[in-house]
Amino acid sequence: DAGVTQSPTHLIKTRGQQVTLRCSPKSGHDTVSWYQQALGQGPQFIFQYYEEEERQRGNFPDRFSGHQFPNYSSELNVNALLLGDSALYLCASSLVGANTGELFFGEGSRLTVL
Amino acid sequence: QKEVEQDPGPLSVPEGAIVSLNCTYSNSAFQYFMWYRQYSRKGPELLMYTYSSGNKEDGRFTAQVDKSSKYISLFIRDSQPSDSATYLCAMKDNFNKFYFGSGTKLNVKP
Predict the structure, then answer these.
(1) Cα(A39)–Cα(A17) distance, integer angstroms
(2) B50 touches B35 (CB < 8 A)
(3) SS3 for B82?
C-alpha cells in the first residue's frame, strides 16, 4: 500500500520564478492538504483540497495556488518566488469523515530559493 | 499570540529517562489533540491522538490533555535512542483545520 508520494524531493529556484510541486495521496484517501515547514518550525497550513475544490485556506498569499485532479492527486503552485518561500513543503492526505482525523504525510519537497 | 505554543527544546536525556513534552494553546474550540514524530528529512507521523480531556496510553507513550488549562503533554517512559526526533503537537478544530506547534527536538543519548 503506497503512502503519500511527493515530487520532486529537492529543487532550487531563483527569485521571481514559478514552481509546481506534486502529490499523490495514500490509497483510499480523498483529501489533500499542503503545509509549509520552515527550518526549525512546525508545519503551517496552506490549503486543503477535497472533490477538486479548495475547501480551506491558511494565511498564505494568492501566489500560492493549487489543484486537485479526479484521481485525488494534487499540485501546489507558487508564483513570483521570494527568498522566504524556501522551506519543506509537505503534502498530507486524509479521508473525509474519518474519526481519527489522522493526516498521512509525504516526505516533502525541499525548495530552496536563491 | 500563536494558536499553539510548544517548548522549543532542544532536549537531551540519557537512555532510560522519562521525557515530558508540553504544549499550550489559546483556542478553546480545539477538541482533537495529537502528537506527531518527525525524524530528520522525513514527514511527520502520528504518534498519539486524543479527543477532549483525559489521558491515553500506548506502550511507552502517554498523552495527557487538560482543557481547563489549555495544556497538553506527551510522556515517554524508558526513552530509547530511536526516540530521538522532533515531536510536534497538533490540534484540530471543528472545521478539520490543523494547527501545529513549532516542535521540540529530542536527543536520547545511549
Answers:
(1) 21
(2) no
(3) helix
In terms of CA atoms, which chain B residue is nearest residue A56? Answer: B97
- Answer whether residue A21 shows pLDDT above 80: yes
Distances (CA, A) of A26 to A30, A72, B60: 9, 9, 28
Place of cell 522525513: B42
Q: How many residues does chain A have?
A: 114
Residue given cell 506527531 in the structure block:
B36
Test mutation, A9, A41, A49, A99, chain B, max B CBs within 10 A? A41
pLDDT tens column, A49-98: 999 999 999 999 999 999 999 999 999 999 999 999 999 999 999 887 66
* Inter-chain touch B99–A45, beta carbons under 8 Å: yes
Question: Facing residues of A89 across strands?
Answer: A36, A109
Pure H helices in A48-101: none
